[in-house]
User: What shape does this take?
Amino acid sequence: MLEILDPILLARIQFAFTISFHIVFPAFTIGLASFLAVTEWRWLRTGNEVYRDVYKFWVKIFAVAFGMGVVSGVVMSYQFGTNWSVFSDRIANVLGPLLGFEVLTAFFLEASFLGIMLFGWGRVSKNMHFVATCIVAGGTLMSAFWILSANSWMQTPQGFEIAADGRLMPTDWLEIIFNPSFPYRFLHMVTAAYLTTAFVVGGVGAFYLWNKRHIPQARIMLGMAAIMAALVAPSQLLIGHEHGKNTMEYQPAKVAAMEGNWDHTTNAPLYLFGWPDQKAQETKFGITVPSGASWVLTGKADGAIPNLKSFKLEDRPPVAWVFWSFRVMVGLGMLMILIGAVSAVQYFRGKLFESRWLHGWWMLMMPSGFIALLAGWFVTEIGRQPWTAYSIIRTAESVSPAILGPQVAWSLLAFVVMYTFVFGAGSYYILKLIGKGIPAANDKEQYYGHGIESSVIESAAPQGGKNV
Amino acid sequence: MFDFSNIIDLPLIWGVLIATAIFLYVLLDGFDLGIGIIFPFAPSDKCRDRMMNSIAPFWDGNETWLVLGGGGLFAAFPLAYSILMPAFYMPIIMMLLGLILRGVAFEFRFKASDKSRHIWDKAFHFGSLSAAFCQGMILGAFVQGVEVDTRNFSGGPFDWATGFSLMTGIAVVFGYALLGSTWLVMKTEDVTMEWSRRVASYVLGFVGIFMALVSIAMPLMNDQIQKFWFSTPNIFFLLPIPLLTAGLFGLIWYDLHHKKAEYRPFLASIGVFLMGYIGLGISIFPWLIPFKYTIWDAAASGPGLSLMLVGVVPLLPLILGYTGYCYYIFRGKTSHEHMY
Assistant: This one.
């Protein structure tokens, strides 16, 4: 019975599960930290207290999301070793320094100054507090830099040689860090993080406008989010497009899977819908734009694009996952562009803050960034299969040999139970904070106390009131 | 590609750096986890609020040292990382789950309603307790050594569970409780401080017993360690370690009972940990996978260690500097910290 527990598949599911849960939070906090830095800057510059309200409201949500990002992130730094020890041993000489620099240049910065950002009101000057916010925001970006460099290296490895015992030895650090897919992936991810946050912030703003609460603060939230959506969502399409062309050059099998293209070398159709069948080696039920994929990727209808059948069976990624994740991501991206454009039009008509139907759309779009982000990572990570380091180390040879199916099965189960419980609670508290809203003027000061406050006192006077 | 391998002993330097990172983790998260361990025994909810507030601004930074310990081991000693992580699979996963519960409790506890707050009190306590216990077990199992087949762990899933590792697990729980309670003596006042003093003096005895047990067991388990400690002239050079430890125990006891000092018990507890850590470290040196691979066998290649060294030399002092700054910002007694 226990033999059916395939340790490789289970280890992959465990990694996918824990990293997917994790990435949601950093993506949100990367965007939110920058958003907070901007609002605090606006407050310091203009003295407009509405910006302060917005800051203090979102910083509480930031704290919850950041905490969950930290605890789920610690798991990741150990999982390479627990479940992928052969991979770790073979690539550590190349990737180790990148992850080491992530901790040294980013993780400590964020973690230390977060304390001042959350609890430092009244202990440091306003300007110092702003500096702390900027440091945290800069730290999140720095962290993204190193992590995406390491991930991109796994996609497009270079700057190393393989020693006699199979271990990889670095030969050029700049080639390793600035590997071919890194600039595209970094830009794509940071932009995705900003968009994700924009749609959450905008959705909350729209929610308050819809309910006629906190109108001045809500206008700032929706207004800033609309600017992001209108300007950044179309840019993301361009960045993603360039990223795709880069992938076509370095990971052709992934692009073939994204397009569901088994046979065509030129004039490949663009599938709007279809069902890639890995066994039958064809994409069924296709609704296509003739020569569309060739045109999008090369600019010419008869442009050459990679096809799956030119790769050996054992070198092909799971096509349906990549194909469908890609469509979810692009579809949501298009929706974001549309919402951004409509919001811009409404803004210039002077109706952005009055259009209830548009606010409804913004509310519906709140989770869109998270879904698109995960879908995008599914495309790139599943598209890299069957390799951990593309065309160098196979996933099957990367796992820890001593960790057998039953062990991974129980740890996976434990992670699922724990993450569901903890992150379910976290999401609930974030929603509760949103529902509770921005406190009225008279109980602001207590509200700003954040964690350093007495739960006893707070619960005795939940709506504020005089504090001891 | 620069490589300092020929000029300096990179593995040795990195061994010292990683050992220092792990020690800083043990100290810094030690008092956090210790507070979680003694949390449910506090006399009132108000005390518990203060206990938690006293570490709320720091815990995140403190836990980062664990990431540096794990990430640093991966980067500097990949062979050790890829053998030890699978070897301690279960305790590591349990420790991580414990740290998740403990970490989220900080934020959730203050956001929870009265009815559900007890859930996060328990999460905080049991998360801290299991993280501490697992760390102790990992330490014990590490000292005993693991089965290795060339470059991979080759033992069974429960090899780490031994009588010795059980004992070190309990030892670390009491050790952290000592750090946590003396931290509270320093950072709180009135009822909370008085209670912490009593807790500290209670756990102090257990810490002493377990340190003695481990010190006796280590040389008994391994001839090399026995020879190292009890041969002349080593014994004369090494004698200060147990003597200093005994002195520190006396100082903590005196401070808690007579002098009513507030800062010194915590500092002396750090001293106790330092002595224990040094004792363990020199017993095991130069083994990184006792008694199979030394730090030189397990080290990463020269270019990587060199690059990271170039990074660490300016960054580590900077990190210590701003960590210190953050502690300075939140100096003084917690109960004075009415932020509202």
Notes: The longest strand of chain B covers residues 287-289. DSSP finds 14 helices and four strands in chain B.
